[in-house]
Specification:
Strand 2 and strand 3 form a beta hairpin. The two termini are 26 Å apart. 24% of the residues are buried. Helices cover 37% and strands 21% of the residues. It is an alpha/beta fold and 174 residues long. It has a five-stranded mixed sheet, covered by helices on one side.
Amino acid sequence: REVTKWGPACDLRLARIYGYLRRTPMVGLLQSWSPSSAKLSIFAYNDSDHAGDAVTWRSTSGWAVGIRGSTADCWCLFDWGSKRQQVVAKSTTEAETVANNKMLTRCLIPFGGLFAQLNGGEPIREDAVTDSGASRLAIAQGASNTMRYLHTHQRVALMFLKDTYAAEHRTLTR
């Protein structure tokens, strides 16, 4: 909950979580699958809220990345997070594009490389999902007149995103 401010109440909640984990060592999550029976793919969801911080008006980027099998009953979430963006976004499209860039560079590309190495060097399918049609369009075109400042303002290159999603094993959908 506390993305940017940590206080005494947060310490108490953290102590309760550690206490629960210490009292329940026999409880846990177990995830397994058979790579020979299911074709694996990475899925990633990202979203942002435009000007979500009431004090600084900065947007918050969020992402969740996991791996799933060819059947819907086999999946495992292995990375998620949220981070306040460094600069105030001028539009929802900009905030969503920055969130997509953050998820791609922080999670999808590194994990895709790792799973490709584990798969004998052959890349596995990577599906990214975003809810912004304008952001998907700007990424597909590799340029946007209304967001031409994006590279200097947010350090996000639309052409990099376009080239990254141009790989045949990687998609960006709704």
